Amino acid sequence: MTDARGNARPNGDGSARHTPGTPCWVSLMARGLAATEQFYGALFGWEFRPGPRPLGPYVRAVLDGHAVAGIGVLPPDRRLPVAWTPYFASDDVDLTAESVRSCGGTVGVGPLDADDAGRLALASDPSGAVFGIWQAADGAVAGVTGRPGTPAWNELTTYETTNVAKFYETVFGYDEDPVVSTDLDYVTLRLDGRPVTGVHGIGNALPRDRGPYWTTYFTVADTDDAVDQVLHLGGQVLGGPRDTEHGRVATVADPEGARFALVRKAG
C-alpha cells in the first residue's frame, strides 16, 4: 500500500492531470445524503459543495478548498449496494470503455458528460467488481493527497488474481508485481514503476452474497482515534485496528454499510 495518486503530468496551461491508469477519484453512492454528509464531515473534516449532476444529486467533499471525494444519491427504485467506488484516469473514456468490453468487462453507465468537470463511465471487471473511468476536463488539477481525510489507496478483493489482474493490466497498461507465496494471493499493479493499486484473491472466503469489491483507504492522523469516532457516529468496525508494514489499519463501515479503510501510514 502506498499513495500512488501523485502520478500527474503537466497540461499546456500549467495545471496537472493524472496519468492514465492512476486512481484519480473516489465516489460514494448513498441513500441519505444529509446523514452521510454529517458522518463523513465529522470523521474527516470534509465540507461539501455542489458537484456535477449526471446521475442525480451529487456533492464534492472538500478539504481546505480541495476536492477529495464525491457523494451521490442512489435512485430509490434501484437496489444497488451502498459502496465507495474508485475511478481510474483516462485520456479517452470512450476508448477505455471499449477496451473494458473487449476484455470481458461490462460498462453499466456511460460514457457520459459530467457537466463541465469531464466525462465518465461506470464499469465492472469480469468478476463483477465495479469501478469508474474518468476523463478530466482540460485544466483540471490533481487533487490533494497524503494528509488526513484524503484517499491513500484502493484495493480489490476478489476470487483470484491471475485473470483479474490481467484484465486491469490490459485495460490500463499496468505491470504486475505478484507476491511470491503459497499462503497469499496478492498482486500489486504498477504504472511507470509506481504502485497504483492492489488485487487480493481470497477464493471461497469471499462472501457469496457480496461478490468482489473495491476498498478505499483514507489517511488518518490516528487509526484508533478514528475508529472510536466511527463508532461514536453510528458506524461499525469490520476489522482491526492492526499494525501492518504499511501502517496501522482498520476496516470500517459507515451507518449505511459502505465499507472503507482507515490507515495511519508507517514512518
TrEMBL record:
SUPFAM superfamilies: Glyoxalase/Bleomycin resistance protein/Dihydroxybiphenyl dioxygenase. Residues 1-21 are annotated as: Disordered. This is VOC family protein. It comes from the Bacteria. Residues 22-136, 150-265 form the VOC domain. Gene3D superfamilies: 2,3-Dihydroxybiphenyl 1,2-Dioxygenase, domain 1 (3.10.180.10). InterPro entries: Anthracycline_SecMetBiosynth (IPR052164), Glyas_Bleomycin-R_OHBP_Dase (IPR029068), Glyoxalase_6 (IPR041581), VOC_core (IPR037523). Transmembrane segments: none annotated. It holds the Pfam family Glyoxalase_6. It comes from Streptomyces griseoincarnatus.
